[in-house]
Amino acid sequence: MTFLTQNRTSMIVGTAILTIALSFGGYSFASHSFEAGVSGDNIPDNTHITLNGITLGPGEVMPLYDASPNYVSGHFLLTDECVPVDDDTNAPRVAVIAGHIDEHNSATHIEPMPLFYIDLVSNGDNRCVWHAHIPDPLNGGAPRVTDIAIANLGDSDVTFSGQHIVDINIQSVLGNIGDNPYTDGPYVDLSANTIYDLNDDEHDNDGLGHGGHE
């Protein structure tokens, strides 16, 4: 890795942490030891975001969801233009990142989410669909998710059109991040998402926890 690449990556990491923290607001990023979270473990919630007209410049981050101090389980869906990664699999133009941002560096942990490409409802051009499990312990990603965002890791602007959306469905609370914090931080992995595809001819990108396909 060249010095320029290292420097740019460090800038993106710093910008990502600062942007997410400022966008979500102060209380969300204090020490969560004083926050009780919800009572019970079931908080059905759906967040639908239309991305039409939004532009992310190189290194910019767009926060999407904050459940702090609760880390949660659910589903994530993204539609974006299609970037071919194999003969019949596509990746989005932005990275989907998740984990926890905290005012304490040691408690900050962000990773790319494993994404499943949904070929049946994608057109292979300007509208591809990806789905993710929150969390996905078998295929990687952050094990405890309070915060979700998208980041432009490329060198040019990304502008979304009317077909591009994010949908986040939260089904339950798994715990309070104050009771089970990250302690290995700051850990910030801003690499591209791993893309799985259960419907192509390749079996080495099926991911774990699925029966595969014929």
Structure in a nutshell:
This protein is mainly beta. The protein has one helix at residues 3-24; strands at 45-50, 55-56, 61-66, 70-80, 83-84, 90-91, 95-100, 109-112, 115-117, 128-134, 147-151, 158-159, 165-176, 187-188, 195-196.
Please explain how this structure is put together.
- The chain contains one helix and 15 strands; from the N terminus they run H-E-E-E-E-E-E-E-E-E-E-E-E-E-E-E.
- With 214 residues, the chain is mainly beta.
- The protein has one domain (3-28, 40-196).
- The strands form four sheets. It has a six-stranded mixed sheet with strand order 1-13-4-10-9-15, with no helix packed on it.
- Strand 7 and strand 8 form a beta hairpin.
- The relative contact order is 0.26.
Strands of the largest sheet, in order across it? 1-13-4-10-9-15
**How many β-strand stretches?**
15
Count of helices?
Answer: 1
- On the 0 to 100 scale, the average pLDDT is 81
Set down the secondary structure blueprint:
Blueprint: H1 3-24, E1 45-50, E2 55-56, E3 61-66, E4 70-80, E5 83-84, E6 90-91, E7 95-100, E8 109-112, E9 115-117, E10 128-134, E11 147-151, E12 158-159, E13 165-176, E14 187-188, E15 195-196
Parallel strand pairs: 8-14, 9-15
Antiparallel strand pairs: 1-13, 2-12, 3-11, 4-10, 4-13, 5-6, 7-8, 7-11, 9-10
Key traits:
mainly beta; 34% strand; globular; disordered N terminus
